[in-house]
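Human: For the file, kindly provide a plain-text protein record giving the amino acid sequence and the backbone structure tokens, at your earliest convenience.
Assistant:
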Amino acid sequence: MRADAVEKVTGAAGYATDVVRPGMLTAKVLRSPHPHALVSRIDVAAARVAPGVHAVLAREDLADLGGSSYGYFIKDQPIVALDRVRYIGDPVVAVAAETEAEAVAALEMVEVGYELLDAVPDMDSALADGAPELFPDPPLGIVPGYGQGASGELRPRQNVCYRFAYTTGSADVFDQCDHVFVDRFEFDGRQQHVHLEPFVAVAEWSGESVEVWSSCQNPFPLRKELGRLMAIGEHRIRVHVPYVGAGFGAKNNCKAEPIAVLLARAARRPVRYCMTNDECFLTQRQHNATIELRTGVMSDGTLVAKEAAILLDAGAYADASPLVAEKAGYRIAGPYRWKHLSTVTDCVMTNTTPAGPFRGFGGTQANFACESQLDMIARRLDMDPVELRMKNLLDVGEPYVPGESGMDSDLREGLGLVVERIGFGDARPEGRGRGVAIGFKDSGGVNKPAQARVKIATSGDVFLHCGTIEIGQGVRTGLRSVVARILGVDVSRVSWPELDTDHTPFDQGTNASSGISVMGQAVEQAARSARAKVLEFAAGVLEVPVTDLDLDDWAIVAPGGERHPLNFMVMGHYGGTGYEFTGEGFFKAANDHRAPLETQCVSWEYGWGAAEVSVDRETGQVTVHHLVVSGDAGTALDADVCRGQDEGAAVMGLGGALFETMLYDGAHLATADLVSYRVPRATDLPERFESILQEQGHGPGPFGSKGLGEGTMLPVASAIANAIEDATGVRITAMPFTPERVLAVLDAAEEGS
């Protein structure tokens, strides 16, 4: 059973949205009604003296800060508007009042003068000659270090905040290819994360120190960024993270926290800033993308060379777009063998909701293009698409690219499983088509450090301290089981204290499927260290070699099976108050300039997918009759949790493939709430939906485990697109596959025939 099951099903689990502090005020935000405008005047005088108001935050209140804008590589997103607004929903003024109604009433008293500017609501308009610049003056930004073949660049062209490029091999090999194919793909995903717990933060000052309760995925980087903004030491910022009601990447870096912290400082009262779900739509989204692939192959299906030009719509602010660009550009080749790769990814600024990390993290965009084109190439060569993949897949242990780590799954084995389960080579029912695809991403983050601590009390009860956040993925279940297995105790004796940055060991963040492959290694080290200290202590007391002893259920097992309860032994040695044994663990991949991303990838995450579909030629409606997905856990620490992650990811991929998207009318978001935005329902599940959990045992984590939870999202769209062509003979190169889009392509094909 999951470690958090009882708390969650009984409603006892605590979230940041549940936090209540004595005297707590409520914050609300006034947002821009315009996509692009200069802010000529802000008058908050009436709001400051409105009934119930204790604090108002406007641009004039940011003057004494260490920074007025935040971001990952690029510090370009103002806490509240400075000289201009850049999208509908940009925060302009914030108010903290006794009640929500009083805060809203005060915001209605704020007067803002705008001088409207031309907007660039999409990438074409943003890149057009003469387009208005969203940032005429360069914001503060850095380019991280890269290894061989990789590079980054700030502001390489108009309205492009960042460019990532990677090259290996020589472009001359294109001249040796029998065929060179050029195809263009439109990823109109723009999925909304739809995490049920909204962005929320509670802040409370005590003297010159602040305490924050946040629904976030990376509390330690958040603490660092708040320290920079407030110009105070990190030792004066304490961040608590209870359970998090999902994130899917959105809850990284600053969201609600800076406004809550600044209002609380001004009011000298605790402040809770909890966005509505509608406001979440105006805060973060997935990147839409345009991808052009030029691919050279031999007539026998051997893949030779690939060049990719990728445009990512970053929205109004950079957020994590440079990181997403790295991943999309680096993963575009898929898990195949190439002689030459060259990719360039640009992050384009538009007057829309900022885009940021989203489950799959650039892999969804890259996979749709890569795996769709592979099927297109197979058909052009009159070759079976499964055979084409099998011929070119990398082997176990074979490096992805020069200087990189090797594959840690048997890709052919995984592909064979879904091919067999979907019945790919069997006769197809009338009007149906089948398609396959392989999802592929690096896992565990880049250059990501993690620390853990395991403490064992006199009674044998265990405390696991680590910075990984439980966001619903079941990490508490998995890592507690690792500790219990190593220490030989029942998992019920392992507790997981709530995260508190004053006491919890450092972690970079809960993202990139790193909980098992990175933090898992730190936890394993900590548990083994604590176990070794217990055995060394017992060996000294019993005067026997430590190698002759074992640890089981908080008893020392001596040669011949004699058991010595440790609680009595500990108190006899240290006194009646007892003692705690502590083990520390740390993991980080070694820096290596030969690796394109400066460290080799810790692990690789795959999702094998296959779909059977039919298409209504009168309406364009796509029906998925059978969907099969498979992920490789290496070794499953909890099989039910692993399957839940794989199945949830696949359904998220299904929604993105068929209908999920934030629709814009120019720069106006038309689907800005949970009524108009469509997410998958139970009735959207295919007639047959299967997931196959593999345990190939090649993972770097404890007992051969590895991260999962994103991989099975990646192949769904391309598998469905490939199945649509199999059913209709028509290729869809833009997603989602809405009836309108599919029907238009079918009609165009019929007119052209």
The mean pLDDT is 97. The first helix runs from residue 5 to 10. The chain has three domains: 5-117+212-269, 289-445+594-752, 450-507+519-587.
